[in-house]
Design goal:
The radius of gyration is 21 Å and the shape is elongated. It folds into two domains: 87 residues, no CATH class; 140 residues, Rossmann fold (3-Layer(aba) Sandwich), CATH 3.40.50.620. Helix 4 runs parallel beside helix 9. The strands form two sheets. It has a five-stranded parallel sheet with strand order 5-4-1-6-7. By secondary structure, it is α/β, with parallel strands linked by helices.
Length: 256
């Protein structure tokens, strides 16, 4: 979501923000010596939510509600009728010292890897989509092209470098492909991001085949102790899920 109203709402509602604000409000009321019961309730609620949001059980439950697009078995990639592959950007690491330049973050690399896998299996042309070029830095799509060609050995046919959001990824990528008489394409993104991706492409009018990657497993082997023990990784997954749920609501309000 672009920063602004949506960005502020995410800071307020998405983990760990919501928990922290509740804790701070409760502590403030207790410090002021007023409404001590309300203060304890707010602080306790904030701590409880922080614990829940940090457990793999809650993180996986939330992500499971987003991972609705099925995986495509490798043997069936050629049966999807796609004419191209779209891979969406996911962010960069600024001033990566070991490379001496900006580079892609781990999420973007996961998407590129799967897009390269599909491209090798199908020989379809690839479009990379990602903008947000600031302070003279190259747009994300240029970084994606460099990695795909130099490190994965997959040539890039089209570069879409003007988009700032998933909705713009879909709009501008669809425009480029329609100009090239492409009517159906794979779209590669994380499994939990795919609902917002598909909604955006539906609005753009291009027929796409969801090609989700990096599924977060749920319920394999039953509940174990680690599922209810808090971890930073689980909190990060919960934050991804909240970002998507809030993003889906925001897109319907803004773009419908």
């Amino acid at each position: 979501m672009a920063f602004g109203i949506a960005g502020i709402l995410e800071l307020l509602l998405a983990p760990p923000g919501l928990s922290i604000w509740l804790i701070l409000a409760g502590v403030w009321l207790l410090y002021r010596g007023r409404r001590s019961r309300l203060g304890l309730g707010l602080a306790g609620s904030g701590l409880a939510l922080l614990y829940l949001f940090s457990t793999p059980l809650v993180a996986q439950l939330l992500l499971a509600g987003l991972q609705t697009a099925p995986v495509i078995p490798p043997a069936r990639l050629d049966e999807q009728g796609a004419q191209a592959i779209i891979v969406l950007g996911a962010g960069r690491r600024k001033d990566a010292g070991e490379y001496g330049i900006d580079t892609l973050n781990s999420l973007a690399l996961e998407r590129l890897r799967y897009a390269a896998f599909i491209a090798r299996r199908t020989d379809l042309p690839v479009l990379v989509s990602g903008g947000l070029a600031i302070d003279g830095r190259p747009p994300e799509a240029m970084l994606m092209m460099e990695v795909m060609e130099a490190e994965f050995g997959v040539p890039i046919r089209w570069v879409e470098s003007d988009s700032r959001t998933t909705f713009e990824n879909a709009r501008y990528s669809s425009r480029i492909l329609r100009d090239s008489r492409i009517q159906r394409a794979f779209v590669v993104s994380h499994a939990w991001h795919m609902p917002r991706v598909l909604w955006s492409f539906d609005k753009s009018g291009l027929d796409v085949v969801p090609a989700p990657t990096v599924f977060e497993p749920w319920g394999e082997g039953g509940l174990i102790l680690q599922d209810i023990l808090p971890s930073a990784r689980a909190l990060q997954k919960t934050a991804y899920a909240f970002h998507e749920y809030l993003g889906n609501v925001w897109y319907r309000l803004r773009y419908s």
